[in-house]
Amino acid sequence: MTSSSPTSGAAPLVYFVDGMDCATCVQKVEGMVNRLPGTGAVKTSFARQTLRLELDETQTPRTVLEKNLLALGYTPTLQQTAQSRAASAHADHDGDGHDHAGHVHEVLPAGTAWYAGRQGKLVIFSGVLLALAWAMGFVAPQYSVYGYVAATVLGVWPLAKQAWASARLGDPFSINMLVSLAAIGAVAIGEAAEGAVVVFFFAVGELLEGVAAGRARAGIQALAALAPKTALLVEGNGTREVPADSLQIGQTVQVRPGGRVPADGTITAGTSSLDDSPVTGESMPVTKTVGDSVFAGSINTDGVLSVVVDREASDNTIARIIHLVEEAEGSKAATARFIDRFSRSYTPGVVLVSALVAVVPPLLFGGEWYPWLYKGITLLLIGCPCALVLSVPAAITSGISAGTRRGLLIKGGAALETIGTVKTVAFDKTGTLTEGKPRVTDVLGAGVSENEVLRLAAAVEAGSSHPLAQAITNQAKKMNVIAPASQDAKAIAGKGVTAMVEGRSLFISSPKHAGSTLSVTPDLLTRLTALEEEGKTAVVLHSAEEVLGVIAIRDEPREDAREAIARLKTMGVNTVMLTGDNARTGRAIAAGLGLDVQAELLPEDKLRIIAELRAHGGVAMVGDGINDAPALAQADVGIAMGGGTDVALETADAALLRERVGDVADLVQLSRDTMTNIKWNIAFALGLKAIFLVTTLLGYTNLWMAILADTGATAIVTANALRLLGWKGGTVKKASTPSGLPASGSV
After folding, report:
1. How many domains does the chain have?
2. Whole-angstrom Cα distance, residue 650 to residue 640?
3. N or C: which end of the chain has fewer CB within 10 A?
4. d(CA 562, CA 184)
């Protein structure tokens, strides 16, 4: 997305670009910026109407960039910091419009009627002129042509200005150029009436596209408005109302019943049910208490809560979701990249074919000039690639927005397209297929008491954030067992942990590792086997010389895990569990869920197995985003269970905020439904053009029918893409339809 590499003197800039609110607009702005010397790291977002880049002003002054944007029909406003590109920018600029018309869609304030905007007024005014000219044809036919010419000039003038600006900035074959040539050509050959109809229908199409673009952006704008503007900051024995964006990490806020949580944080006092649906899509309120995390924007339904702030406003869950959606627009699906390349050659080809049709028959074969000129002009309109260019980005944006509302965060069109094609989904066990909240079920002593085993084990695991370690330390607290201090604690990858406790080195290891370094009695081996066959994870506490005891831990499978695995199989996707746990425990969990398993794996083993699976088709890896970062990166698609972690958002291609295994199946279905939508859009756009190409050459199609077909195709393709905004998911679909296309989903 960059044209030239900026020098070390390049400075990062963030612009709010008023009017850059559709896929075509973004394509045009990116093309212009990338052609400027000294630009780099160009990123655009039509959902937020932002342009971010690095600019070396010794090569291209900032004023040149801004002048070019104005010439293209967009009004740039330089933002002072990256954070100021938040939703407040929209409040400052929405509805302002700009004085440079063209293929630019006006952004109106929410709730404003379409006819109140500049484009709506243009449609109404040109429509009135067209109607008056038509009526004059019955009263004074000799003057009606002036009305048609006036209507044509009114509609084509902004398009011609836009076409000239695009040509001057390196894009001579724009959609505006095609329509301008067709309208001017119609007037030149005496068909002013049809020229007026052409520009009127094109203006209507632009209006409809702007309305559709607004709908696609509405979800993200609504998300930005979720976080409350104020918060109740706890000070001493009282509270003080402060701006929510002024909260600092470590401060405590009070959240009253009916209020929204002002920041990501952890509950320090109180118990309440919270409605997380605005953020995660979770339909049922979740009861949370001391120690539980809360999201900014969640609604507190009953109790009073005290929450310590964990993240500043610019880094809370809502801000990161918006940033992800923004970044997603820059990661284009392979299909979108193909359409971009195709359209760059397609539009000049249309101009060439139209010119040949207009002049070759009269010059070489003695044909009449008028009918062939007419056919050439008509082909210009038929060739307009509006519907084709919109077919992919409109569907991708709608699909990503629909997923975001259901707590499915997808990092771009490339990831969304790939997820639906995977042949295998590999799951980590702990925290992914299971709840991630293991609890101690059995404590066995070998020459020491059970309390002593628990006391020493808690000391070794002190400070660790691993779920199994927390299960041991939590059990010690529950049993009022006080763990001694430990030093030099460290993890041994895939084997266990060690620490110095009361002057000696103690280890907590897997039974396999312990058995390879120490002698384990037959009786203890029998008891270990029995525990593991019950689906429990057993760990051995030992010193360098002897076994001291065994602790068994059970992490229950998630409620929806079995149903989710069954859904994936119905969709034709293989499933496998990859775990570092022992084989017996892995088999017990896997058998209950109905999937294959490979156990006793080190981190490097998971990478090897994923590479082997990829040889037989695409692989998605689902993990907790912390311990599974290498595997998430190795897979074709990495899916993080629990999108609240930094590592999950940075490493994975998608994240599941609701932490449901069923959401993996929903991701696959959303991908397939989106790609089906795209295939139908492309087929419809190209098929309609093929039909009108034939009918034009045979003399059955006139100018107004051609532009109506193009406008109609654009409207239909956009409307079809917007259907994805209503996507619900959760429906089991077969792997494919008889036609070979993926089945469409719950839209």
Report:
1. 5
2. 10
3. N
4. 65
Give dist(CA 172, CA 167) in Å, integer.
4
State the DSSP code for 434.
Answer: B
C-alpha of 213 from chain center: 16
Supply the pLDDT for residue 351. 82
The DSSP element (H or E) to which 492 belongs, if any, is strand 486-492
The verdict on residue 385 lying in a domain is yes
Question: Do 251 and 360 reside in the same domain of the chain?
Answer: no
- Which residues of 495-595 form beta strands (DSSP E)? 496-501, 504-509, 537-543, 547-554, 574-578
Tell me the sheet residues that pair with 443.
551
Q: Which of 428, 581, 636, 710 is catalytic?
A: 428
DSSP string, 585-616: HHHHHHHHHT-EEE-S--HHHHHHHHHHHHTT
Q: Residue ranges of the alpha helices (H) in 225-292?
A: 277-280
Q: Tell me the helix, strand and coil percentages in the chain, rounded to 5.
A: 50, 20, 30
| The model scores a pTM over 0.90 | no
Q: Do 105 and 218 reside in the same domain of the chain?
A: yes
**Tokens matching residue 254:** 């009070």
Domain span including residue 269: 230-315
Cα–Cα distance measured from residue 151 to residue 156, given in angstroms and rounded to the nearest whole number: 9
Distance CA 353, CA 375 (A): 11
* Per-residue tokens: 190: 């005496």
Pairing status of strand 537-543 against strand 504-509: antiparallel
Q: Where residue 458 sits, what CATH number does that domain have?
A: 3.40.1110.10
**Domain identity same for 657 and 601:** yes
Q: Same domain, yes or no, for 160 and 214? A: yes
Q: What's the gap between Cα 612 and its chain centre?
A: 29
Instruction: Identify the weakest region by mean pLDDT among 30-44, 462-476, 623-637, 651-665.
Output: 623-637
**Angle CA 736–633–311, to nearest 5:** 110
Q: How far apart are CA 532 and CA 466, in angstroms?
A: 20
Residue at 681 is within a domain:
no
If we measure between CA atoms, which residue out of 23, 159, 49, 51 comes closest to residue 103?
159
Number of residues that this document lists for the chain: 747
Do residues 656 and 663 make contact, with C-beta atoms less than 8 angstroms apart? yes
Give the separation between CA 293 and CA 310, rounded to whole angstroms: 9
Q: Are 601 and 578 in contact (CB under 8 A)?
A: yes
**Annotated catalytic, 428?**
yes
pLDDT at 738: 32
**Residues 127, 136: Cα–Cα separation, whole Å:** 14
CA distance 88 to 49: 12
| Three-class secondary structure of residue 352 per DSSP | helix
Q: Could you write out the DSSP letters of every residue in 337-351?
A: HHHHHHHHHHHHHHH
- Which of 58-62, 215-219, 482-486, 696-700 is predicted with the least confidence, judged by mean pLDDT? 215-219
What are the contacts of 679-683 at 24+ separation with CB within 8 A? 679/741, 680/720, 681/387, 681/390, 681/391, 681/392, 681/394, 681/395, 681/717, 681/720, 681/721, 682/335, 682/339, 682/388, 682/391, 682/392
Q: What percent of the chain has pLDDT over 70?
A: 81
Helices (H) and strands (E) in the chain, counts: 24, 26
How far is it, in rounded angstroms, from Cα 161 to Cα 180? 9
| DSSP structure string for 357-398 | HHHHHHHHH---HHHHHHHHHHHHHHT--HHHHHHHHHHHHH
Handedness of CA 443, 593, 639, 402 (dihedral sign): negative
pLDDT digits (tens, 9 = 90+) for 302-314: 888 999 998 888 7
